Amino acid sequence: MTRRTSAYALCRPTKTNGYRCQSPAMTTSAFCCHHQRRRRTRPTTITVAPSTPAQVPFNMPPLVSAAAIQQAISAVINAIGNGQLKPRQGRFMLNMIRMASSNAGRDL
Fold it and tell me: How far is the C-alpha of 26 from the C-alpha of 10, rounded, in Å?
C-alpha cells in the first residue's frame, strides 16, 4: 500500500473509525474548518452564583397611564434582575404589559 503525499498540511485529528481526517488543514491552524470549529470552546458566559433571594411577592402597579406602563416595565425588568421573577415569568408579564398598552391605545 503506497502512501499519498500532499503539498498541503493535513488535518491532525483521527476520526472514530481510526483513520486520519485527510482534509487539508487551514493555513493558520493544524486543523481543517470542521475540526477547528469543533475545537473552539463554548463562548464564555457570565454566570451568577445561585442565590436564594428573599421570597418577596412581586406586585404589579396598576396600568392606568402611560407613565404607569413605563414604571411597570421597569419594575418587571428589575424583578428579573434581582431574581424575584424567573425570566419566563418576566417575559410573560412584559407581553401582558405590551398587550395592555396596545389595547389602551390612545386612551391613556
Answer: 9
**Does residue 75 come out as left (phi exceeding 0), alpha (psi in the -120 to 50 range) or beta?**
alpha
Put simply, whether the predicted model's pTM sits higher than 0.70 gets the answer no
CA distances from 77 to 55, 67, 71, 74 (A): 17, 16, 10, 5
- Render pLDDT for 69-102 as a digit per residue (tens, 0 to 9): 888 899 898 888 888 888 898 899 899 888 888 8
Q: Are 55 and 34 in contact (CB under 8 A)?
A: no
Give alpha helix (H) positions in the chain.
33-39, 66-82, 87-104
Closest CA to 95 of 84, 83, 103: 103
Q: CA nearest 89: which of 70, 101, 75? A: 75
C-alpha cell at 19: 483513520
